[in-house]
Specification:
13 helices; 23% helix; 29% strand; elongated; alpha/beta; six-stranded mixed sheet; single chain
């Protein structure tokens, strides 16, 4: 048994007071005989003995009352499991995980989840003794120096200054890191505290749990919070995407936005705004039932080239961080296209189509391409079948986000065209030239009207492609990874698309010559070629970058080793890349906050990207004890995981786990029962004496 307030035990000396009073009352009195003494002697001796026994019982009860009251205030505890050899001077290492993701900003009747977590962490520190060690691990911890201290005031200051982070964190990785840190501690006592709402937990695989703690013994304790609430008002933007596959000046841009009601009440009169470079361009009102999601679209026109920062946002609510989503759209000032015509005149109709269309930002060159010219281009058009293996870096150039149009030439055979596709890692079957003569019996079969190259190609939005009269063509059968944009009635591809990295390749089954078909004379030829150039010059939007993810940045052509970085978290900083000399890419790791990031070197743009919040952060719920225990259970931990909610007395739960079950309530109840017994016995004794 251990007493949590041992100083109160000094009060046990007060238990001697009833005995002293009793002894004082037993002092000898002088006997005086008087005439009525004979009457008193008639009292039965048995009654006198009974009174004496009751007086001794009163003495014992009164002494016990004082003893049990003192013991109750001394807070005795009884251990159910002994800590093999643990004494009151054994040192403790307390590792505290605090969830500082934005979901912890949810408000409960007791305050925000984040403030409740901070309060509990302070209580942990107050319960430690001098010389104990504290390790702090916020969920935003990402390749940072770990905060370790034995200075309690420094630990409390760290907790006070801890702020929200857009990075969700990896709880599984934190548990493994915690186990590693605790296993290296020399202190006998080891305690792990987890203050989180566990709103984005992923199941741990038992085989992946490290066993560093298996031999720690029963001196390891794990405490976890059951923070969470269902009573919130939270509308979240859970998806934000660019619908337009073609971005150009004076072209309409379409965006799709998914909005979800994460709260438990109807949300009415909400407004969705579309901001471009800080200026509102579109808005839409919406209502949502609890748990309902809605997909809506917003459109706007761009009348100038440049890099545009697009923001979708909604009104403020209980969690504001998930009310905005971010997207970048780059409309190039100039589209640089090159026509590589291996037979000089084969590209006549292509060049004429590009010149006919009013594309003020299109720059066209033609001839035989030199490999060094690739980095000066956005789109390459190859007509014929040159030996692409001599064009150094062509695949890498496409994969970096550029585009290629590949068409047979007047003297191209099936083998050379197939070799061109194979060089580009495009899997397709190319059969020998099929000739139908001037009859042109082939026609189109179900063109892909949803493909961005065909969608709205004509005014009014209707797709009516007048199939050309085909004289000869190569039957092409691409694999399933390719997109058949236009298919012929025999099932072969007239026009198809394959992706290479961030870039794209569009290839045709016939040459743009009237000796092959009347395709160059059709009304949709010029708009199709122009849209293909615009489509290929549009950098494919990368998959949504979630806060905390690493971003590869191409630094192979930076003009200076000094890289200037602008981010929403820390503003403007500089990074010296000298240590990365010889590397083509660097991994940028500090993407913890949603928003826009840009990198420049001597005013040259190196990289721009947008970062968004993890959609799981908008999910706020109450967690049950079983799911939490199953999640954080670690092989080899001999103690049961202790969980608590904001309604529980956390300090009491910790003390009970450390020292055992407190007995003060039992002591107090015994004292009260003894007081009642003393009152009854005292009254009975008084009546008998009377």
């Amino acid at each position: 048994m251990i007493f949590l307030n041992p100083a109160v035990l000094l009060g046990l000396f007060a238990a001697s007071i009833p005995l002293l009073i009793h002894l004082l009352n037993l002092r000898k009195l002088k006997k005086v005989e008087f005439s009525t003494l004979a009457f008193l002697k008639e009292i039965q001796k048995s009654k006198i003995r009974k009174v004496c026994i009751k007086q001794w019982l009163l003495l014992i009860i009164r002494t016990l009352i004082i003893i049990f009251l003192v013991l109750a205030f001394a807070r005795p505890t009884l251990r159910s499991t002994l800590f093999g050899g643990l004494s009151s001077t054994a040192k403790t290492t307390a590792l505290i995980i605090i969830d500082n993701s934005v979901s912890m900003s949810a408000i409960t009747p007791h305050g925000s989840l984040f403030n409740l977590a901070k309060k509990s962490a302070r209580e942990v520190i107050k319960g430690l003794s001098e010389g104990d060690e504290i390790i702090m691990l916020p969920t935003s911890h990402l390749n940072e120096q770990i905060f370790t201290t034995s200075d309690f005031s420094a630990a409390e200051k760290y907790i006070d200054e801890l702020a929200f982070s857009g990075y969700t964190g990896d709880m599984a990785a934190l548990l493994i890191e915690s186990a590693d840190l605790l296993s290296k501690s020399n202190n006998f006592n080891k305690e792990l505290y987890i203050f989180s709402d566990f709103n984005s937990i992923l199941p741990l695989e038992k085989d992946s749990i490290i066993s560093d703690l298996q031999n720690e013994g029963a001196n390891l304790h794990v405490y976890a919070s059951k923070l969470g609430t269902d009573q919130i008002n939270n509308i979240a933007i859970t998806k934000f995407e660019l619908n337009s596959a073609i971005t150009a000046v004076n072209k309409s841009l379409s965006f799709s936005v998914e909005i979800t009601n994460r709260g438990g009440t109807i949300s009415e009169g909400n407004v969705l705004n579309l901001l471009i470079n800080g200026e509102r361009k579109a808005r839409k009102s919406f209502d949502l039932q609890p748990g309902e999601s809605v997909n809506t679209s917003l459109e706007t026109n761009i009348d100038e080239s440049g890099l545009y920062r697009i923001v979708a946002n909604i009104d403020d609510d209980d969690i504001q961080a998930d009310n905005s989503a971010y997207l970048l759209v780059n409309i190039p000032e100039k589209i640089r296209a090159y026509i590589w015509d291996t037979n000089n005149r084969d590209g006549f109709f292509i060049q004429a189509a590009l010149n006919l269309k009013d594309l003020n930002n299109l720059e066209i060159k033609s001839g035989i391409l030199a490999p060094a010219n690739l980095n000066e281009l956005d789109v390459l058009i190859i007509i014929g079948s040159p030996d692409l293996s001599r064009t150094s870096g062509l695949r890498e150039w496409i994969a970096a986000g550029n585009g290629l149009i590949l068409m047979p030439g007047s003297v191209t055979d099936a083998g050379s065209f197939l070799n061109s596709l194979k060089f580009l890692d495009i899997n397709a079957e190319v059969k020998n030239l099929v000739m139908s003569g001037n009859s042109g019996t082939f026609s189109f079969r179900d063109p892909d009207s949803e493909n961005p190259l065909l969608r709205d190609i004509f005014e009014g939005g209707s797709l009516k492609l007048d199939a050309p009269r085909i004289i000869q063509y190569f039957p092409i059968a691409p694999d399933k990874s390719a997109k058949k944009i236009i298919e012929l009635t025999d099932g072969s591809a007239f026009m198809a698309e394959s992706g290479i990295g961030l870039g794209k390749v569009i290839y045709f089954s016939l040459a743009p010559l009237t000796t092959w078909s009347d395709f160059p004379l059709k009304a949709f030829f010029a708009p199709l070629i122009n849209r293909s150039v615009l489509y290929l010059s549009t950098m494919e939007q990368p998959a949504s970058i979630i806060a905390g993810e690493n971003i590869p940045v191409d630094i192979s052509r930076i003009p200076s080793p000094l890289l200037n970085i602008k981010s929403p978290a820390i503003g403007e900083t500089a990074l010296n890349t000298d240590t990365l000399s010889g590397n083509k890419y660097m991994m940028f790791e500090n993407t913890r906050e949603p928003g826009f990031y840009s990198m420049t070197s001597i005013d040259k743009s190196i990289a721009d990207f947008s970062v968004n919040l993890n959609p799981a952060e908008s999910i706020i719920r109450e967690n049950n004890e079983r799911s939490i225990k199953e999640y954080i259970s670690i092989q080899g931990i001999p103690e049961e995981v202790i969980t608590y909610s904001e309604n529980d007395n956390f300090s009491a739960a910790v003390n009970q786990s450390r020292f055992g079950t407190e007995l003060w309530k039992i002591m107090l109840i015994i004292a009260l029962l003894l007081i009642m017994a003393e009152m009854l016995l005292s009254r009975s004794t008084k009546n008998e004496i009377t």
